Fold:
Amino acid sequence: MLNEDVVKSLGESYMVKSLELTVVVEDQRNPKMPDLQAKHGLCIYAEAKTKEGVFAFLIDTGPSSETLKRNANALGIDLSEVKGVILTHGHYDHTGGLPEVLKHIDRSIPIIAHPSAFEPKFSFKPTLTYIGVPFTRAEIESLGASLLLSRSPVQLMDGVSTTGEIERVTSYEKTEGLWTVSRERFLPDILLDDQSVIFKIDGRGLVIISGCAHSGIINTVMHSKRLMKVEKICAVIGGFHMLNADEKRIRWTIDDLAALNPEMICPCHCTGKEATEMLKSAFEEDCIPLRTGDTMEL
Structure:
């Protein structure tokens, strides 16, 4: 359950005046930018403008330092300006570029993640395969990482927060097929470390950015609304984890998204081709799939 004191604090926080997003790494490349490298994973550079100035955050870091470095340079992004990094969960395709970020920053910055993000993580592809964080905590701490591991929401600044652990209330959004080791037992991994990032935009409502939405994108949006005490949704952005979803689940998701009435839906990464096409058909010009190199101003 959400801590009511946290909800009150975030609900009373100041709003961000505007938000600019750049997709640094995604599964597909913008064909207008041939110098960029598309890789399975996600990294979004976010610049939040407030009355105090512009503050940059990195949401996930893609699968590797090599890809992140190449694309950041091509896009003219100065990683040394990053004020904090949010890891949405502990899979390699969202965390692998973190060492590269830390090499560019000569100060300690918060690296925000769930405590379970560093637990071993596996899938079957088609045999047992490690898909977890590709470095140890000690390795990134030696590069200057200040790990902030929290199950509850973390407020990065006024109007910007992580979701913390997401309440799972829908009947059809399941986390299946993933495994972990906890207390020396090999167990199904329900990805409690899955979290998203919320920006409260002045006059526009909430911008919700998910990494993979292993908790379910509907659960994520509803949780974000309760946490920030805001009904209006400006945009839902990121991976919606429907790559292997059947048509019934996709349609249920579309119906519930329509009821939540966001101004804009921007799927990418693990959403899946079929789900993306169905989202585009349902929401028409309000659905804008994202690719490596795309930018948005909100």
User: Anything to note?
Assistant: The mean pLDDT is 94. Residues 4-297 form a domain with the Metallo-beta-lactamase; Chain A fold (CATH 3.60.15.10).
